[in-house]
Amino acid sequence: MMKAIILFGHGARDVRWREPFDRLIALWQEQHSTIPVEAAFLEMMQPSLEKATQSLVEKGAQEIVVIPVFFGQGGHLRNDFPLMMESCQQRYPAIKLSATSAVGESAAVLQAIVNFGVAAL
Which residues on adjacent β-strands are paired with residue 67? Predict the structure, then answer.
């Protein structure tokens, strides 16, 4: 069963906002080259969650895990994101589609931010 990852972010008008996502994708590909990864955005940037899902399905993905690259569970993740996930699942009923919590809720991510701060001192 081919597994894949979508790194899901908010999006912004400034195209430079996407640069950390591109670096994350490059790191993922260097470290996990057999597992496809795509970026997707809630608004203002492409691809959408639906388009990223479509791309991965076309590459043969049968299981997709969406990772919300958000600091916390705000309104977009509580309200908009579940509807987007449901729409994708309805469009691709044969795939297993799931999501993690926001990355900012991970103890490891929070510790990495503390470590970053300590290193800045």
Answer: 7
Half-sphere exposure of 56 (CA within 13 A, CB side): 33
31: tokens are 């470290």
pLDDT tens profile 56-77: 999 999 999 999 999 988 888 9
Determine the Cα–Cα distance for residues 15 and 99; give it in Å rounded to an integer: 25
Q: Is 47 helix (H, G, I), strand (E, B) or coil?
A: coil
The model's pTM: 0.95
* Six token digits for residue 89: 């699942």
Token look-up 């800045």 returns 120
Q: State pLDDT tens for residues 23-37.
A: 999 999 999 999 999
Stated as kind and residue range, the H or E segment containing 110 is: helix 107-120
Q: DSSP assignment of 55-104, as one string?
A: HHHHTT-SEEEEEE--SS--HIIIIIHHHHHHHHHHH-TTSEEEE---GG
Output the six-digit token pair for 22: 């591109």
